[in-house]
């Protein structure tokens, strides 16, 4: 009997032990699962917090640049250990919670603006102290917008005819007569202005919404037959754009070009011709003879001159400046060709004498052959389309006429050569930006709207890539803005 009872007790103990082991195993598994889930949730929270810390690093440097716009070394002297190799950094900072407790850190790497690109690159890596191996990185591009954000910018009154089309925003410090097509905002600094006969306004044609006054035909800041008003694309008056900010320091550009070996002094003849090549080089010619002088109206007076090449001699073939230094020509300059790189060309004579300022002439089509190609043309006076211009002309560039105009003279359509063939052309297209101090036009029309000189059709489009990444040395305006944001993938 005792033996049987002992066996039953032994079996019971065994069962209890088995179930106890199972319970302990289950309890351990559940505890491990709870701990794992707890750590996973904490790690997930740390992952999210690392992102906020990384963004805090970006916001910190935005604040820093607002107070020290030229400091891309986080207060360290340039050339120091952390400010020698680009990108500069890492600059490490503590991150505190609202109670002042240090809960994480961020590290910054900063690429300052260069001659080729006016944007700074800020990269911020954030992590928590609890999970320092869990990191997230945010990268932004940061720049001041350039004045090439306008398809067209002028300091004077302007008239866009019915055969002219603008793609992109445009602004005038004067008045705008808009009879053409537009797909973006037009702004004028004028509430009203006096529209002159050069823009089709006189005592006989001045009618609603304009009014004839003792000063002339007074019109709204923007008016005309275009559909922009109905589309809500006319806005006036707005603050004027200060053209003093647009003028580049030509002496500084000359110095930069001389240091890089891309300065070309007075030619001793008619000027130079730069022809860009699709292989990233350019040919430099000396212009030795021009076509016979022709009569043209320059917007102020009749002149007899020639702006078209007849003969030239090759001086050399050059690589584009590798560090985006400007090409500076101290003479009149003709430009054409296929651009494969980022380059700015300047034509100017220093010290500046009003009657001796230099101009740029568009000799033939200008195109881009690479995705990152961009061309800036800065003229001390005018940027001109000559009489002997292509029937279909394409210009891809940002054009800046500092003291003059982007312009084609009025050439009379006389029934003899060369006026008979070249006075009226068919089509011109620009892609980039036109910034002109004085009167602009590629087309001249009569009182009935007929083209009597220049291009019958005009299409001007702005290049959105130039807003924050303009040609080297092109003017910028306003405050720094973030224009590109991305989160970098974590390193494996």
Structural commentary:
- The protein contains 4 helices and 34 strands.
- The protein has 492 residues and is of the alpha/beta class.
- It has 3 domains: 39-144 and 481-488; 147-173 and 241-466, no CATH class; 187-240, no CATH class.
- The strands form 6 sheets. Strands 5, 7, 8, 10, 11, 16, 17, 23, 25, 27, 29, 31, 32 and 33 form a 14-stranded mixed β-sheet that branches. The chain has a 7-stranded mixed β-sheet with strand order 22-19-18-24-26-28-30, with no helix packed on it. The chain has a 5-stranded antiparallel β-sheet with strand order 1-2-3-4-34.
- Strand 20 and strand 21 (302-305) form a beta hairpin.
- The longest helix has 66 residues, at 2-67.
- The radius of gyration is 33 Å and the shape is elongated.
Descriptive keywords:
alpha/beta; 34 strands; 3 domains; 14-stranded mixed beta sheet; elongated; 492 residues; 7-stranded mixed beta sheet
| Overall residue-averaged pLDDT value | 90
Low-confidence stretches: none
- Percent helix: 10-25%
DSSP, total strands: 34
The secondary structure category is alpha/beta
End-to-end separation in angstroms reads 70 Å
Largest sheet: 14 strands, mixed
Radius of gyration: 33 Å
How many independent structural domains?
A: 3
Output the number of helix runs: 4
Beta-strand proportion: 35-45%
Q: Tell me, what's the shape?
A: elongated
């Amino acid at each position: 009997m005792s033996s049987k009872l002992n066996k039953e007790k032994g079996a019971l103990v065994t069962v209890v032990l088995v179930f106890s082991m199972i319970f302990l195993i289950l309890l351990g598994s559940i505890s491990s699962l709870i701990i794992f889930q707890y750590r996973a949730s904490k790690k997930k929270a740390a992952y999210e917090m690392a992102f906020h810390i990384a963004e805090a690093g970006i916001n910190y440097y935005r604040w820093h640049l607002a107070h020290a716009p030229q400091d891309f070394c986080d207060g360290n002297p340039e050339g120091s250990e952390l400010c020698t190799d680009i990108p500069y950094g890492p600059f490490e900072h503590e991150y505190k919670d609202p109670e002042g407790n240090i809960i994480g850190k961020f590290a910054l790497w900063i690429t300052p603006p260069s001659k080729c690109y006016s944007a700074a690159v800020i990269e911020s890596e954030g992590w928590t102290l609890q999970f320092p191996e869990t990191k997230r990185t945010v990268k932004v591009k940061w720049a001041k917008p350039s004045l090439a954000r306008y398809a067209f910018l002028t300091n004077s009154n302007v008239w866009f005819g019915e055969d002219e089309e603008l793609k992109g925003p445009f602004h005038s410090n004067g008045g705008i007569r808009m009879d053409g097509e537009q797909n973006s905002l037009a702004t004028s600094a004028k509430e009203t202005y006096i529209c002159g006969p050069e823009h089709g306004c006189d005592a006989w044609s001045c009618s609603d919404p304009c009014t004839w006054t003792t000063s002339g035909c007074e019109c709204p800041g923007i008016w005309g037959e275009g559909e922009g008003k109905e589309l809500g694309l006319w806005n006036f008056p707005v603050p004027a754009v200060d053209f003093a900010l647009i003028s580049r320091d030509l002496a500084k550009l000359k110095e930069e070009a001389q240091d890089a070996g891309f300065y070309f002094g007075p030619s001793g003849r008619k000027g130079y011709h730069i022809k860009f090549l699709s292989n990233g080089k350019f040919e430099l010619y000396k212009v030795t003879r021009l076509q016979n002088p022709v009569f043209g109206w320059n917007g102020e007076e009749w002149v007899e001159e020639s702006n078209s090449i007849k003969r030239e001699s090759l001086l050399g073939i050059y690589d584009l400046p590798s560090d985006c230094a400007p090409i500076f020509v101290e003479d009149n300059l003709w430009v054409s060709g296929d651009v494969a790189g980022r380059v700015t060309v300047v034509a100017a004579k220093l010290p500046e004498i009003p009657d001796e300022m230099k101009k740029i002439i568009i000799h033939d089509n200008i195109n881009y052959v690479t995705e990152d190609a961009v061309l800036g043309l800065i003229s001390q006076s005018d940027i001109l389309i000559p009489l002997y211009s292509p029937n279909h002309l394409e210009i891809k560039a940002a054009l800046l006429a500092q003291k003059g105009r982007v312009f084609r003279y009025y050439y009379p359509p006389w029934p003899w050569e060369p006026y008979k063939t070249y006075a009226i052309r068919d089509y011109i297209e620009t892609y980039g930006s036109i910034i002109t101090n004085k009167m602009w036009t590629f087309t001249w029309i009569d009182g009935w709207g007929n083209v009597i000189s220049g291009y019958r059709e005009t299409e001007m489009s702005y290049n959105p890539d130039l807003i924050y990444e303009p040609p080297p040395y092109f003017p910028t305006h306003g405050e720094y803005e973030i224009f590109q944001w991305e989160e970098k993938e974590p390193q494996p």
